[in-house]
Amino acid sequence: MKQLLLQNFTKQFINGQWRDGASSSTIQDYNPYSGEHLLTIQGASTTDLDEAYRAAQQAQPVWEAMPLGEKNQLFERLVKVLEEKRADIIQWLIQESGSTFIKATAEFESSVKLVKESASFLTRITGQILPSYVPNKENRVYRTAKGVIGVIGPWNFPFLLTMRSLAPAIATGNSVVIKPASDTPVTSGLLFGEIFEQAGFPTGLVNVIVGRGSEIGDAFVSHPIPCMISFTGSTEVGRRIGELAGKNLKDVALELGGNNAMVVLKDANIERAAKAAAFGKFLHQGQICMALNRIIVDQEIHDKFVEKFTEIVKTLQTGDPANPTTFIGPLINKQQVERIQQDVHDSVAQGATISLDGTVDNLLMQPIILTNVTNDMPIAKNEIFGPVACIIKAKDEEEAIKIANDSPYGLSGSIFTEDLHHGVEVGKKIKTGMIHINDQSVNDEAHVSFGGEKESGIGRFNGEWAIDKFTTVKWISVQNGYREYPI
């Protein structure tokens, strides 16, 4: 891994230059599995932030006016650079975010698909010509870039979820300033500076500033230059960003927390449902906004489901994320481990049963399965974001739907049934932005709308929804000939 550290990831990337941050504070980057210190970054100050936004502001109109063919060539080059750096990116995801090899590979491949989808936006941004009630008038509606976009990346799927805002924003004519997560400054930020630089994109179009939220967090949102902030992360932080953005009349795209439910109806294929639940719960140690938080099972098949689910979960290997056979790697930091352990302890005190207990070794948590869970227990109410599965018994379908909806979140979900049409009808009754029939909740396709309801966020990503989010429209009317006025 040492060869990766030779890259210039201890600096800020502002206006095409790699330079030290002006803050007196530093960001320490550690491998969550080994505890190895990866690098130290001199933090960005508000002065650095201002210079990054000003660089993006200068670069944006030049980029938007660039000929389509030249932009297309740059996106083709971007894909080539990504493929050339495939091994490095996957390795960085493993060593910095604790991603297993399975998850890191899937994250990289999804990121490439997203870039290719975003490249298609170059020829998909369209306007309209509309009729008018005024004689000899033509109404034209033009779609253009919004301007400068501020992107705040997450630590759990750092590369993909930062790219999910960055690539569409650039493809629709905007410029970007990225503030990466402090736990993953390389994979949710600095890698993008290097990749877009090597692909030949214009200077100042993509900027990356790494700094403490306490020092530059509010300023990143309230700065007068960005017209939109795209954030992926917790509902708590998202609410603060929404407040600041609203006060300054900025648009937002917020993809926040989830409390996703899998509803297993009494006619479900138990083995298939159990295997899907194990994947959707424990992929990336459950540290996914779309991960299954609650598994709600009809009482008629509850015991058989628990038996099969436990059997499958026991086969999942916990350990070194670099090992290709590992399915569950480390959590991102000690605070996450302690929070999850407290929720498990409190839920057991309220009557939950530990059906499968897992040991904790530093940041490694083996899978835990809780049964006899009710929806008011901490492990069911709170977003787990870790390798703990809670199973809730429902007396019938109506109660299962009620339990699924009894949450302030509404991001993703899942329904298992042998009656596909009925599954769709049940899916319509669950208040969530996404739901999957006979599949688990972790699904994301670059051309399909992605986003939640309630406290899970505002706006939609991907495909035509991203085009709409990262552009604005202007009405220009054209009067052909003299218009008579009643004066």
Automatic annotation (TrEMBL):
Residue stretches in coiled coil: none
The protein's name in its UniProt record: 3-sulfolactaldehyde dehydrogenase
Enzyme Commission no: 1.2.1.97
The species this protein was found in: Psychrobacillus insolitus
Family the entry assigns: Belongs to the aldehyde dehydrogenase family.
Record's keyword annotation contains NAD: yes
Enzyme class per UniProt: oxidoreductase
Keyword terms of this UniProt record: NAD, Oxidoreductase
